[in-house]
Amino acid sequence: LGLGGAMVTAVLVALTTLVALPTLREIGEEGGEVYGIILLAGAALTLLLLSADLVMLAVAGTFFSVCTTALTGIDRVAPHSSEATAKTAVHWAGCLTLLCFGTALAYGATGTTAVDALVKAMVLGDPLAWMAGLLVWIALLSFVPVAPVSMLRIDILHGAAPFASALMSAAGYCVGGVLW
Asked: What confidence score (pLDDT) does residue 150 get?
């Protein structure tokens, strides 16, 4: 997964950058900060895909959420852009709250935040570990564009710039591939 996930992320960042070019010209933005944010989102997605610890997963998720929220609101004059930005921030806040609570439960159940320790505790039938695993799983599923989260995502991305929508959706499929 390491090299493959990094390669998929590199392709995703390159395609997002190419798609962003016409949109930025349309809205009259120079784009320097946009390309930097796209690269930071790519780095965060790589960290997210390679995390073996729940704390690193939360840090990478937070990093990715800040980048995508900024990209969602890049068109400052569009009427739906600020609404999409607010909805994106609320979506990521809920996701990261579940992830942090699941991480705290995992630490309480196993004494560590390592993903493999959580899986071992779940295999042994620890109910606290199962609850932690469920919360982490739900938090990670919010990255994936599946129902009912996809309905929220469609509503969020209605006012977002097309390249931000593409980045968030493709990243969701990357995380979904890891979960599968």
From this structure: 45
Residue 161 has φ and ψ, to the nearest 5°, of -65, 145
Cα maximum dimension of the chain: 57
Give the rounded percent of residues in the chain with a pLDDT score beyond 90: 21
Phi, psi of 125, rounded to the nearest 5 degrees: 90, 20
Element spanning 166, H or E: helix 162-179
Angle (CA) 23-12-82 rounded to 5° is 40
pLDDT for residue 137: 85
Q: What is the pLDDT of residue 127?
A: 94
Q: Which amino acid, residue 1?
A: L
Angle between helices 32-50 and 2-27 (to 10 degrees): 160
Q: Which residue has the tokens 């969020």?
A: 156
In angstroms and rounded to an integer, the radius of gyration of the C-alpha atoms of the chain is 17
DSSP β-bridge partners for residue 114: 53
Q: What is the pTM of this model?
A: 0.77
In terms of Cβ atoms closer than 10 Å to its own Cβ (0-12, 13-18, 19+), residue 9 is buried
Burial class (CB in 10 A: 0-12, 13-18, 19+), 4: exposed
When comparing pLDDT for 162 and 38, which is higher? Answer: 38
Alpha helices in 78-148 (DSSP H): 81-110, 115-123, 127-141
